Structure formats: structure tokens, C-alpha cells
Amino acid sequence: MGSLPEAAYLMVITRRNASEILLLPAGAGWKLPRLEVNPGERLAEQLTSEVLRAWGMETVCLFSPPFDRRCMVMEPVRDNEKSPPGTYWTPRTSADRCCAPPEAAAIRESLAELDGYARAQAGGHFACCGWLRELFRWVQEQVGPRGLQLTGRFRQLNTGPQFCLVRFETSGQAVWFKATGAPNRHEMPVTVTLGRLFPNYLPEILAVHREWNGWLSSEAPGTSLDAASRFRAWERAAEDLAGMQISSIGKTDELLASGCRDLRVPALAQQIDAFLACMNELMAAQKKPAPAPLDRSELRTLALSLREACTTLQSFSLPDTIGHTDFNPGNIFVGQDRCVFLDWSEAAVSNPVLTFQYLREYLPRSGMNEAAGGEKLSAVYSQRWSTVCSANEIRKALAQAPLVAVFAYALSTDSWRSIDRASDCKTAAYYRSLARRMYREAVKVAQRSELCLD
Which domains does the chain have, with CATH numbers? Predict the structure, then answer.
């Protein structure tokens, strides 16, 4: 497989419980099908769409085997699917002998992996043959009492042994099934809890499949914020974010118990020294001269700025609320009468202005040409909060948000604690960039303070 183009995927397509493999003629021998993909787009959706376009065959992705992430194990939706013109179903016992050694190895190792998932009976349900047919049956059982029938049309957007994201069309509104595995197993209980506590701000949850750690929900109404053409959609998102946060006041214990991360200001402040000690090591290990690493003096300045910002935020009457460290426009759907918020794997309990800061960060990148858009968005958000705290407090809190929000984002996972300085260069560079961003925000906070004193 050394000659495989960088954007191409080999496909090990099996049928009849992996007893047969789909092959194409290649000179005097045979080869596996292959397709080119766009690296920045969803892999499962691309591969299934391209197989349907090229051969008229509906398929589902099972998994990419660990020996080669540019190989995908798939199966037809219909177990007795005929071979498309120019292709042949070949018994698995002889398929590897028909192919060149690299592809023969791919077949053997893929089938061994597939057999392993089948034997395990747990931990890899969506890597087993027939899982989509089983899921179709379960979804129909859930939507049937609502007077809905599945049409048979679906879109698979995500794939993995423990992960699943599929859209099903029905005789009425479409439904979505999502399942998550490690490290995002908490997304299911978090989503179920949020759906119960704040039904106006999440799609309706129709059913839960605890064995698969998955849930079925109605399709989000409206249009995603990243596709919105009017600034009013952004204002609505800011208003409803504040509304959901205000609704969550007093529910901190329940949110944390469901799996939301603790990013409250005191928890952030406790990690300043440990985080910056790690950043000091990463800066010292940087080999490239640019961008310049932060020196010890700059890191000490950053530490002081973070402590001061945390102390300032903590002094206000803003309560802790539900938060989201991946609050991007693709996770926000704006309907006629409400917004709904999706994908809660990055849910947290935090100071409310931090989540709003993530939203505000996306506005300049959205292509939304709105004069003073950031200030208008802040005004709308602040107005919704005016029933809880004073306009002066929210204004001051928003001034601290850019610095603390970057710090909270950096702490939203624990990966910074276990970076291998020698081999994990990309992750180290990423955290160095976050530290430099924090330092720039700290300088801006200091400059604003000097202007106020003048």
C-alpha cells in the first residue's frame, strides 16, 4: 500500500457476515476498491456517498483498522447486495490470495480485527456486522408510537467501534442517533440531564439506549448559526445562551454529577501554577526561533494576570452556570422561536461570560459584515443578564473574559498534564500557542487598566 495516494482510502467491503469481500480486477489479479477523500470533511459520510455515487450501493462504515488509518472496513446495508458492474464478491478464504501482498495483508488484518469485535460482545458494537440493521429496528420501535415510520433513507456522519452519528429520515421529522465512547462517554448522561432540565434549549430526546451509550433525538429546528445570513441570528444565539445559563442557576451540583467539567473560577485559579510550570518546560523545549517562546519573566507576568483576573471575576455577583468550551456556530441552530444547542461533550460549569466569549470569538471569522458586531452582541447578552446582576458588573466581567476564557479552554482537558515533550510535538506547539495567546490578552488587560487610570 506504499503507492496509495495520500487522499485515497482502501475499502474492505464485506457482506454476509464478512464471509465475502468485494474485489475489482487488476491485470491478472484482483484489488480492493479505493476512493479519494477530502481530508477536512467527515470521512464516513464521504465514503458512503462516493460508494453510492460510483456503484449505486448503499454501505455503512464499520471502522478504520489500527494497522492503517487509510483503510476502512465497510458493509452493504442490504446483506445480499449484488456486486456492482465490474466488481466481484469473493469468499474471504481466498480473497487475500487473489491480491498483491500489501492488500492481502490489509484483508487479513481487517478481518482479524472484525472477528475480534464480534467475539468481544462489548466495547465495539458499531464495528460489528449488522449493527445498522439492528439500529434501524430499534429506532423504528421508538418512533412508531409517535406515528412515524422510517423511510429507509439515512446519513452516516461518524464512525468508530464505540461512536455513531446517524440521521434517519421518517414520514415526518427526521431523527438523529448518537453514541459515544471513551473519552466522551459522559456526553450521554450530560445530554440527557440537560434535555430534562432545559428542554427549550436542546432537541427533544426521544429515547436512550444505555447499552450502546447512545440517545435518539428529534432533528434540531432551524438553520445552523454558521450558515446564517443575518446578524439577528447571532443576537438570538446570545440571548438564548444567557437564557439557558440563567435557567441553570442553582443547579451546579446536578450538572457536575452528570459529567460536566468543573471550570468554576476557584478551580481554574488552583491550576495556574501547575499549568504555567508545564508551559515553562514546553517553552524551554521549543527548537524553532519563531514564534518566540515566552521567557520566565513573561510567564510570571501571565501568572499574576491570571490570578488577578480570576479574583476580579470571583468578586462579582455572577453565579456559576452551564458552560460549553466548544460553543461554535456549527453547534447552534436558530429556529423561528428559539435556539437549540448541540454536542455537549465539552459541557462545563463555569462563569457564564466564558462561554459567551467563545461565541464572540467566532463572529469576526463568520463573514458577518456587521459594524460594531461584537459590541452589539455583548449588549444583547448583557441585557438578558440585567435581571440578575448590574450592567457595570457584567461589563467588567466581559472585560476579563478574553484572558480567562483561553485559560479555561486550555484546561478543558487534562492532556496538558501528560504531554510527551519528545514525541508529541504538535500538542506541545498547540499549548505553547495558547500560552502566547493568554499573554497577549494579559497585556491588553493591563493596557486597558492603564487607560482607565489615566
Answer: 8-123 (3.90.79.10), 131-218 (3.30.200.20), 224-453 (3.90.1200)
